[in-house]
Write a structure and sequence with these properties.
Order of helices and strands of chain A: EEEEEEEEEEE
Structural class of chain B: mainly beta
Structural class of chain A: mainly beta
Strand content of chain A: over 45%
Helix content of chain A: under 10%
Radius of gyration of chain B: 14 Å
Largest sheet of chain B: 7 strands, mixed
Largest interface: A-B, 25 and 28 residues
Distance between the termini of chain B: 33 Å
Number of strands of chain B: 11
Number of strands of chain A: 11
Order of helices and strands of chain B: EEEEEEEEEEE
Oligomer: heterodimer
Largest sheet of chain A: 6 strands, mixed
Distance between the termini of chain A: 41 Å
Shape of chain A: globular
């Protein structure tokens, strides 16, 4: 069965800290890995990674995929209280027709003043 | 607002009742997905459509669940004879398939509470 595991499950940091969130996966036919941020509502898209070693960056957030290690990290530098959320990692499989996502349980990040 | 929209946002029902949720995807998106999310878990895939064709259904989707996308635009998810275990957030996502990869954008969800 396809599996996506995120760590840590939860994290509390002070504003200004840098955090690294981890995601590892076991899927049959990997297509892409996606990161989402979920506050109180729906997940909002952050990054999609398809190629190993290429870093995607948006402001203080960046992510990189390691297809050899079947994992990805999401880095957030100079954290702010607005970064407090659940960060979800999801993997899409390459099955020809389906693009369903398999999600991890998420990492709950709390940024305190 | 041109994002994915879902209605209603909240639904409280009694066990045994039928409920129907609606999802309006981003207008040019040809794929539409339904997921279910329970507390402390990531979303779980239920089903998806490419245009009006329902191409895959999860084993999570029992025969009490049915989804339609009659004209390839909006979609409905109906749950018949609701059970307390159906209480969850039901999320809809849409995407545009182009060049192989597609990014799914989620709506705000419908939170179902079955009493």
């Amino acid at each position: 069965e396809d599996k996506v595991v995120q760590s840590p499950l939860s994290l509390v940091v002070h504003e200004g800290d840098t955090v690294t969130l981890n995601c590892s996966y076991e899927v049959t036919n990997f297509r892409s890995l996606l990161w989402y941020k979920q506050e109180k509502k729906a997940p909002t898209f952050l990054f999609m990674l398809t190629s190993s070693g290429i870093e995607k960056k948006s402001g203080r957030l960046s992510s990189i995929l390691d297809k050899k290690e079947l994992s990805s990290i999401l880095n957030i530098t100079a954290t702010q209280t607005g970064d407090s959320a659940i960060y979800l990692c999801a993997v899409a499989e390459n099955t020809g027709t389906a693009s369903k996502l398999t999600f991890g349980t998420g990492t709950r990040l709390q940024v305190t003043l | 607002d041109t994002g994915v929209s879902q209605n209603p946002r909240h639904k409280i029902t009694k066990r045994g009742q039928n409920v129907t949720f609606r999802c309006d995807p981003i207008s040019e998106h040809n794929r539409l997905y339904w997921y279910r999310q329970t507390l402390g878990q990531g979303p779980e895939f239920l089903t998806y459509f490419q245009n009006e064709a329902q191409l895959e259904k999860s084993r999570l989707l029992s025969d009490r669940f049915s989804a339609e996308r009659p004209k390839g635009s909006f979609s409905t998810l109906e749950i018949q004879r609701t059970e307390q275990g159906d209480s969850a957030m039901y999320l809809c996502a849409s995407s545009l398939v182009a060049g192989g990869a597609d990014t799914q954008y989620f709506g705000p969800g419908t939170r179902l509470t079955v009493l």
